[in-house]
Amino acid sequence: MTCGCTYLLYDEEDSSAPPHLHIQITDPDASNRIVLVSVTTERAKSDTMVRLAPGVHPFVKQPSVITYAYSKLLDCDKLKRLINDGDAIEKKAADKQLVQRAQAG
Fold first, then answer.
1. pLDDT averaged over the chain?
2. Are 8 and 20 a contacting pair, CB within 8 Å?
């Protein structure tokens, strides 16, 4: 689990909602935790600090944004369990420029 990895994560509060792409924007800290930011479809009231064009990542098919309100501080062991249980799906890593944009936001 390194900075730039991406995962599809389901909403813990609404299991019927589709999973969202999350970008890991830190390496694990001393407590084995990482920061993940959420990518969501751009809507009229979206936070547009970091806009993402279709194709910026293979999973991004329509205009999207980083929604910092859904950021997560997550223990790496918990993420591994989510992956093993099928509640998180690893996707292609984000490129360096995308990670830097997400970190800067």
1. 93
2. yes
Contacts of 26 (CB under 8 A, 6+ apart): 3, 34, 35
Six-digit token pair at 71? 């950021």
Run means of pLDDT, 10 residues per run, the chain, 105 residues: 94 78 97 97 92 95 95 96 93 96 95
C-alpha 67 chain-centroid distance: 9
SS3 28: coil
Query: CA-CA distances (angstroms) from residue 67 to 47, 77, 90, 103?
Result: 6, 24, 19, 12
At 34, the amino acid letter reads: I
Number of residues written out for the chain? 105
pTM for the predicted model, two decimal places: 0.92
Q: What share of the chain is helix, strand, coil (3-state, %, to 5)?
A: 15, 35, 50
